[in-house]
## 1
Amino acid sequence: MNRHLLSIADLSKEDALRILDTAAELARVTETPVKKLPTLRGRTIVNLFFEDSTRTRISFEAAAKRLSADVINFSAKGSSLSKGESLKDTALTLQAMGADGVVIRHPSSGAAHRLASQKWMNGSIINAGDGTHEHPTQALLDAYTIREHLRDSNGDLQDIRVAIVGDVLHSRVARSNVLLLQKLGASVTLIAPPTLLPVSVESWGVNVRYQFERDLSNFDAVMMLRVQRERMDDAFFPNEREYSRNFGLNLSRLNQLSAECIVMHPGPMNRGLEISADSADSDKAVIVDQVRNGVAIRMATLYLLLGGE
Amino acid sequence: MSSDFSVVLDQGEIARSLKRIAHEIIEHNKGTSNLVIVGIPTRGSHLAARLTQMLSTLEATNVAMGTLDTTMFRDDLRGSAPRSLGRTELPLSGIHERDVVIVDDVLFSGRTIRAALDALAEHGRPRTVQLSVLIDRGHRELPIRADYVGKNIPTSRSERVKVLLTETDGVDEVRIEGRA
Amino acid sequence: MRIINLVDVTGKSMELAIKDGRFSSQDSPTANQEIIDGLGLTVIPGLVDLHTHLREPGKEDAETVFTGSYAAASGGYTAISAMPNTNPVADTAGVVEQVYRLGKAHGFCDVFPIGAVTVGQQGIALSEMGAMHSSEAEVRIFSDDGNCVWDSLVMRRALEYVKAFDGIIAQHAQDPRLTQGSQMNEGEVSAILGLKGWPAAAEESIIARDLLLNEHVGSRLHICHLTTAGGVELIRWAKQRGIRVTAEVTPHHLLLTDELARSYDPIFKVNPPLRTDRDVHALREGVADGTIDVIATDHAPHPMEDKECEWAAAAFGMIGLETALSVTYKALVETSLITFADLIKRMSTAPAEIAGYSEHGSLDIGSEANFTLVDLRSKWRVEASAIRSKSKNSPYLGMELPVKVMRTFLRGKEVFSA
């Protein structure tokens, strides 16, 4: 495996399955009284979060600590973010501190790539979300969750039919998921209003639909994307009411899903907007599992990237 | 891949060694009531399964068994590619105050067993920990010794000891490769 | 002075005679005339750029008239046109005269300021174009480059206004509403990279509008840095209809595509953005068939900290004066699309004609001796340490390029030697 995890494109199918299998084993271990594994003892992991995200940061922190690594949290929220100067200067500072691994979340697409390609610091870089580009560990935990529920935690996702619904244009979760699901053999359908799909999405090898209604029983997993209020200009859709009416997962749509179909969401949810409260709380929803699996996936990622160095 | 090898244990000898080890375990522990047999994946687990089967038959009881992957506890991870993890699964009754017998195929530097001791410690506090290996090839780097040994085979460091088992390799055989 | 042992753009052997800073007839050599061996180099009229950013006044950390005009001379240019998006904006006679005088004082090449179309380039009120034309700088070309003259009425008035002195409005075609926050060409690559797209239509819709306006008004329209296949087709259509328009293309848009953005290295971030392979080919065809009149560099210097960051935070622009001839040679001549002679027409003769720089673009006897000697056989590697511009934001760093500029002469005086 590569030194860095910047994009799902960095992983071969074997690499991806390796991460899922390793995570499965680690998950079992952490269910026992075993509190910590000594594997990354003496290593320093830095959480470099230029964007607010308590959930993902805590997940990475828990993962690193369970492997006995030292964790340093850097949040750029309070400091003066003057353009990209912060990225370079921050990187040079961290290099001086001797970070073995850096988990970076940044509002600009390509920030993780810049960190990895410039010679400002050594160490492995893990992309925890860069702008609207990718969020690889999210896709991995999503694939893991699908596999857990639909394939008994074994093998790949061949022939599994996944629908991804919502703001694909601005979603790094969608981009990573499309890449990974296809790599593992699943078929992907994107359901969104035309304004929230990238031009040239046809070249992605996915099915594209503008209606949520039809053939809902043909999906094995439905992944609802968060409506990204903060990333949008105006004029992507008339108003929230229309969006919710046409693309929200409400009870009526939920009831059309097959018995085995699972409902997923990367969180945090806008209850009532893209997903109704009763859909979120139904027993089809595996959202809590996704969060739990996130720690095991991130442990596996840290181990596989840093364990052998 | 062709390499010169000599067979130091054949199927029959392996079976007899395991049978003897089983008797030794019963004798030393005065029965099997407090035993937990724990194999180190991959081949150690298969050997543990065979031993447990034998013990259970001899004492007409179900002897507890588990597997313990030691990868995450190794001290030699750095500098090589990350290894895939093997299965860790211990009996529900746990290992606290039990007599644990670790089972592995080859005892060499002793580091795997050290890692196994660390791994075990995360799961509880056994009353005793004993070690059973099919082959002891010498060259210990840590103060570790086996309680039950199938065969002692002096080797040089450059030689490779290969244990093949029916479960994984289709045949029961212990080979030494690279012997002049 | 006499330079012997030269070849012309077709490879034919020739000599130059220069007297009092002008080309003179070769028939009467004088007694103590200096004789220089041209070493078999090719002589071309000095290159003429219609689109350069010199950054002075206001952003002297990136470039100054001194460093920019010297960089130009090292690229074989004897005349450059300085865009007005300085600080203060060149929207008055005072600022254009300042830039003009600086260029003259440094003496590396002729610096012709371009005046802003609107006050502060805000797109609202026409600037004092008449005053700028009457000033020492004799401004003829006006542009709000960096910004688009977006208001249709203002664009119409600007076109009409400059008819009074045969002026040119050079439009930076970019619908601001369609490109808010845009980072790179909108297409397959931007969709995958998660970078906000800049649709071709944002450029083409403005071009189409301005062509129709100019058809109606009958002035002189110039389209800056054309980048799309659609744009080429629009210009072709317009010229067939007899609309008075000229168009320029940059060297980088003839060679590079948006695939380079995959590295997320903002050295490739430029306004207007690099487009697709199909666009590059259409632009090359456009130069070959004369739809596109000139090559212009859009030399845009930026300090390294504005490029050493994440894409979205980086400045738009690439330097280009020093690599222009080599890059266009690679894109157009090495691909057998046009001859070297035609390339020089597009880089010297045609721009001089359009802009009215009467002493440039020609080797005719009587013209000022503004010329360059180039080595067509030589290859060179672009190294940051050797770049003469104050800024080093070149997308060609580390690349090997054909054709080396050896010596540049302004009014018969050598201003650059490699």
## 2
Amino acid sequence: MRARLLSVLLVASAAAWGADREFDQLVKGIETHYGTSRMHIPLMGAANLVVKVAHAAGTSGFKLAVFQNLDSSAEYGDQADLDRLMDRLGTGSLHPLIRVRSRRDGESTYIFTGEAGKSTRMLIATFQRREAMVVEVTVNMDTLMETIAHPETAGKAFGVTDPSWDQ
Amino acid sequence: MSIARMVLAAGILTAAAFPSGAQEIKLPPGLEKLADKAEQSVDVTMNKSMLQMAARFLSDRDGDEAKTKKLIAGLDSVIVRSFEFARDGEYSAADVDAVRAQIQAPAWSRIVGVRSKSSGENADVYFKNGANGQLGGVVVISAEPRRLTIVNIIGTLDPTQLGDLGGQFGIPRLDVGGLRMERKDSK
């Protein structure tokens, strides 16, 4: 029994480590490519709460990284360059699922998914005119299906904004 | 029953027995570049492992879920590419013809082809012939003046389940009678 418990714990921590790795890899890749750093987000726990409340039915395990003033990088805004970057970074155990580009809103959204036990892990990277956001969230199948049915709103659906980030 | 539905039904019945195999439609470079002109472009790709993952979460007991589970069990991939333009004429017939050129007999049969001069809306549905009366794949091309949607489904499908695919996985619902392709609201 003890051995079984240990193996369950090992599998769980390996999955968690894998999840962290892909999120961190994506965040680090964006930082390196655009010569920027993710924002320090005060009250991140509150943001977590907002997401849990807003998507109580199907969302958990929320991680967020926000980048600002990306337009100061010469490469930012080059769509082909961004596609290449995301193709390179979106690997590992996650599969590219959705790619939405909206010239109207000046926004590009990339969604990767992978299995997380009885749920699905979604890694969402949204690039706007000046800012970008990477969200990792665990969703249930209903939420995943809803995202696939309305991919154009996926970036906004998981978007979290807080006035304090601008300070 | 509308004429288009009758054509669809006839097409299903006459689907011949050719060996089934994966045949993913490659979007020509010209079409890929449409994303630069489009106001909005959407690219949904579900590969076999993702479809299997989705199937695992669906219940065998719930009527709709069981139906969807059975439906996706034989699928290898679902790809949806959609472009929305601000003005008419942002893409050319040649762009779409380059896709159609890949979907040729004998492997593929064009089951529905609707052209509307008044609205400029065109819809084509192609079936890949599979074994034992099954379909080996489906391609839907919906070309409207300001919107172009290409759906490529690869895998084994039961023709009777085809209608259930509309509205699933970002696949537009095909209402051939009204010549509209639209996403079904899931909620």
